[in-house]
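Hi R.,

Here's the chain you asked about this morning:
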Amino acid sequence: MTTAARGSFELTSFEPETVDEADPGAALGRVRITKTFAGDLVGTSSVHMLSVNDLDGNPAAYVAVERFAGELAGRKGSFVLQHSAPGSGGEHLAIRVVAGTGSDELAGIGGTLDIVRAEDGGHTYVLNYTLTTS
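And the predicted structure, written out as tokens:
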């Protein structure tokens, strides 16, 4: 059975680094982000992201891995999320729990995460997950 976990998160750090500014064409970048979660997820995460800006300097795509550590609905542990935003042409951002990365009471977790960014810059999430126990 799939369960929906809801809440919000704040970016507590955003550390960008341009990778190849001198090279011609699209710009590649790297960012380290930390987040603090509230709601059904309570804890912190560390994100490592690679990004692409198009020739006009606009965000075009990104991939990232994110390790969450804390509690989900009272269960302690950690898991990793994989982000993929394939382009700026209206493709959907996909974020999924990486199979086999759940630890402790979150072992066996699977699912997907949706993020909504408000006009004021705030973020909310819905984590649709399953949790199998052995």
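The chain has a mean pLDDT of 90.

Let me know if you need anything else.
M.
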